[in-house]
């Protein structure tokens, strides 16, 4: 008999999917402390949670039989995925179960914002009959900027077109063909916010998207623009939003998510009567809760019964011998994908993953998935995993191909990743040195030798005396220490690239100061 421990409130209809599985026994124990959960999971084969239970390493140490952890939802911040992976425990989630719920809440917020529905309701409830104060605007004929064209953003765009809106979509992975298929205009972030009457954000929260809509973007917007955020708190800079509301640049905002939740009682946004609040309700529908429960229950059953599963957050099991050989390359592959994604934060297409030397003689299909996960994580964050990465690439209109080149003249094995970007084809490559571990050995046509880990600064610049010194001086004045430096160049005095490892994050103003140095063409903050 296989035991499934349900540690959080999960929809009954979802649990029924497990109850009918032969040989499965459900045990429901909710509201457990860490110690209580560790005791309860001791002889469980599967664990089902939402966001309340914290599945820590201590809990996992106590789980002697655990094969799978199911998260009824998207985020897995409450699960120590690395510890689960080390123990061979599969972690599965339900990344698309709340898509329609979040989409419809976005539209509810947009319509409420355009017609002042919450304010009008409060007025009538207070005994007032005031029509003049609540004159709204129509959606038809207005331009909507959808920032983030993943599953939810795509559904919002479809519905906006049905309302007669002109839709502009921004997404680093949105291709021109995909935009035409959806009947929208593909735009840069700047183009989208400048043209928009309404702006809605649907990106994950990453270091690249934190405060994506900040003071500089508000300065570009039309006077009287309206904003909706049902994605993640922190994508919109709340202080900058307050300034834009106070100046009238923003005519209103509808917010479901916040940088700090619950929203503090003294938060300055509360003083604006043209701001609508909901307490993180994007996924709070009966249908969404049912969907994620059913999806994750089915995935847990698939893992327990040895059937194929599609929503694994961590590594599926590999043959022991192949796993031992590939393990260091799995880490390298994901890092190379993440590096390429951060070097080229624009739209990507035609991805080529090339295997050279001894590596080309192995079954590398799973290794390709790790490369894609690293690459797509810049766009999809925790929605992408090792199983669904190829599907997400296909849905985004990105072609992917593997190339094997058994003969290599320089390295015993070489893994390279390239993609077509608006600036042309870009390439990164890495290898494993005996006794020295993984190394990045190539960026575009430049040879380098750098560790693929930690925080880095990447520059493309003119190779001239004093360039590195000026960059170092700016970092030093900002109290940022340089750990190592790698420079690649083809000709003395020509173009060069540089990777600097740094000990702490580099603020935007420091990046801007480096970018103003004469001869600096590109600067990127990289985190691997």
Beta strand %:
15-25%
Low-confidence stretches: none
Estimate the global geometry from the Cα principal axes: globular
**Alpha-beta classification:** alpha/beta
Compute the CA-based radius of gyration.
Answer: 25 Å
- State the separation between the terminal residues, measured CA to CA: 42 Å
* Helical content (DSSP H or I, runs of 4+): 25-40%
Q: What count of helical segments does DSSP give?
A: 17
Report the mean per-residue pLDDT as an integer.
Answer: 90
Write up what this structure looks like:
By secondary structure, the protein is of the alpha/beta class. It contains 17 helices and 22 strands. It has helices at residues 12-19, 34-40, 57-62, 81-86, 99-115, 117-125, 151-162, 176-182, 189-195, 215-220, 238-247, 286-304, 320-343, 365-380, 389-395, 467-477, 508-515, and strands at residues 2-6, 24-28, 46-49, 68-71, 90-92, 143-147, 166-170, 185-186, 198-201, 225-229, 250-255, 275-277, 349-357, 400-405, 413-421, 424-433, 437-443, 446-450, 455-462, 482-489, 495-502, 520-527. The strands form 4 sheets. A 7-stranded parallel beta sheet has the order 8-7-6-9-10-11-12, sandwiched between helices. Strands 14-13-15-16-17-18 form a 6-stranded mixed beta sheet. The mean pLDDT is 90.
